[in-house]
Design brief:
This protein is an alpha+beta fold. It has two domains: 186 residues, no CATH class; 238 residues, no CATH class. Helix content is 43%, strand content 10%. It has 15 helices and eleven strands. α3 packs parallel to α5 and α12 packs antiparallel against α13. The chain is elongated and about 120 Å long. It starts with a strand and ends in a 13-residue tail after the last strand. It comes from Anisakis simplex (Herring worm).
């Protein structure tokens, strides 16, 4: 058995001779890397230079601005004896260069004192360009007059103004808007000395910090990304059939068998769908009821092959005309609605609003009463008002009978049930292929379920022929929406009907429910 350790080999510097050998080895490696770099193609060199553009562009702009100022602008700044410390024109230029080199020397030596962050390197060329524009403004304007000379040499004021105007024309496209904002003018050479010294500080600072950043980021990252060659098993070892193990493995020298933490008890076993008490082998066509149909009532009519009537029958309208309402019913109705809108005792955390159109706006989290809770309060108020008015005007006798019967038999004075689940299965053997020998299951959980001892009578009169009415109307067509798009399949369902108070002989009369609708986009769910 052979054990190979894949740790890296470290050079131990035990003596000066070993240090010299290590330096020679590093030099040979660097020379080999330099030789290999000459074999790069032009495209590979561009790929290498791409991450360095954030350093090259600011430094190039700094150098361009420096040479433009030192060789293009500063030599034209000539002051007379009163404004130039009695220096000649050649001495003035030499002092400009001396101050510039002093500023460069100081800033290049400041790398041990402070380091400019990489994010601030692009600011240095902007300051340098601003300095160039400031020097251009000094050449473009004279504090006294364009015809008054500021020099004590051979160059006359007219020649200086002509050179300044030439420079003004050259920088007009780039500095037009900038020079419009300048109102202060330099009148003495010491101010130019300060600006030139400041220029040298910026240039040296940009130079030394740029190369320091390249060394700290680009070069070190490239070296850290180099991968050492992995350990290779010699062919002779493979031929001998020697087993090779990794000592860093958790299974060395033998595999570790961890004891299982899952207890052999039914309470700790994950339950499957087949173990559900309502599991059936035949899948049903299910409408859950948690989300409405995509196309509403039209889609339900298309599935059931039913007709949709937009108006109430004449018999219903005749009965509605006999209903007596209180005189202040409109005020009562507004109070019922405002009661639900004003109700805010819990201050629940509402879901965070997301606008699909203005998706970049982050809406704050608000607290209050959920929309469904407010709607349920309004439904309760409406139902309570209907029952009380029915008792007052001797209407809805069957509901009042339920109230009295519940008081003495069930002990529940309410004629309706709140938030009770409902489920029904219909076996369809003919018609659509997908319903063949498969039940259609409808589930819902309405807020109010009103039941009565009498079944609802059909709205169509016995004298009216249903076939004639069906010929005049058409089943709604929801194309291009597929009618069964909101139906799913499931093996867990109840074959028997699930309704509240199923022990008593009651019939469904009215179902009241509410759902949350988007205020800004009401056509969505």
């Amino acid at each position: 058995m052979t054990i190979l350790d894949r740790t890296r080999i470290r050079v131990r510097r035990e003596s000066s001779s070993s240090e010299e050998e290590a330096d020679d080895t590093a030099q040979l490696i660097d020379e080999r890397c330099e030789d290999e770099s000459h074999n790069f193609t032009f495209r590979q060199k561009l790929m290498i230079a791409k991450p360095l553009l954030k350093f090259m562009v600011p430094l190039s702009v700094v150098y361009f601005a420096e040479y433009f100022i030192n060789q293009g602008l500063v030599e034209l700044l000539v002051f007379d004896c009163d404004h130039g410390f009695a220096l000649s024109k050649s001495s003035q230029y030499r002092w400009y260069q001396v101050l510039y080199q002093i500023g460069v020397f100081i800033s290049r030596s400041s790398i041990d004192c402070f380091v400019v962050p990489i994010g601030l390197l692009p600011v240095l060329p902007l300051l340098q360009v601003w300095h160039r524009f400031l020097c251009a403004s000094v050449l473009a304007y004279d504090p006294q007059s364009e015809k008054v000379p500021r020099n004590d040499g051979d160059i006359g004021g007219e020649d200086l103004v002509e050179n300044a105007n030439d420079m003004k024309l050259q920088l007009m496209n780039a500095t037009f808007f900038f020079m419009e904002t300048i109102h202060n003018y330099i009148s003495h050479i010491w101010l130019v000395f300060v600006l030139v010294f400041y220029e040298g500080l910026l240039g040296g600072c940009a130079y030394v910090n740029t190369f320091s950043a390249i060394h700290r980021t680009a070069i070190l990252e490239a070296r850290n990304k180099r991968k050492m060659p992995s350990a290779q098993i010699p062919e002779a070892v493979k031929a001998l059939g020697v087993d090779v193990y990794d000592p860093r493995s958790a299974d060395f020298p033998s595999a570790i068998h961890k004891p299982t933490t899952i207890l052999d008890h039914p309470a700790f076993k994950p339950k499957t769908t087949e173990e559900h008490p309502l599991y059936n082998q035949i899948k049903c066509i299910l409408f859950d009821g948690s989300e409405p149909f995509t196309d509403g009532i039209d889609q339900a009519c298309a599935i059931a092959n039913a007709l949709k009537f937009t108006n109430f029958p004449a018999t219903v309208m005749e009965k509605c005309s006999t209903v007596e309402l209180p005189k202040n019913f409109e005020e009562q109705l507004s109070d019922m609605i405002m009661h639900g809108e004003r109700y805010d005792p819990s201050l629940e955390k509402l879901p965070k609003r997301h606008d699909p159109v203005l998706f970049w706006i982050k809406h704050p989290r608000v607290y209050g009463t959920p929309v469904l809770k407010r709607n349920h309060i309004i439904l309760d108020n409406l139902y309570r008002s209907v029952v009380l008015n029915a008792i007052r005007f001797n209407q809805l006798d069957f509901l009042r009978c339920i109230l009295l019967r519940d008081l003495f038999t069930l002990g529940d004075p309410h004629a309706c049930d709140r938030d009770e689940p409902m489920s029904g299965a219909v076996q369809l053997e003919e018609g659509e292929e997908r319903f063949a020998n498969r039940p259609l299951v409808l589930r819902a959980q309405p807020h109010l379920t009103v039941q009565s001892p009498e079944a609802i009578r059909p709205w169509i009169r016995e004298s009216e022929d249903i076939s004639e009415i069906s010929k005049r109307e058409k089943v709604p067509n929801v194309w291009p929406i597929e009618p069964y798009i909101d139906l799913t399949e499931d093996n867990v369902y109840n074959k028997r009907a699930v309704v509240p108070r199923n022990r008593f002989k009651l019939h469904l009369d009215t179902i009241l429910w509410a759902r949350e609708q988007h205020q800004k986009y009401p056509w969505t769910r």
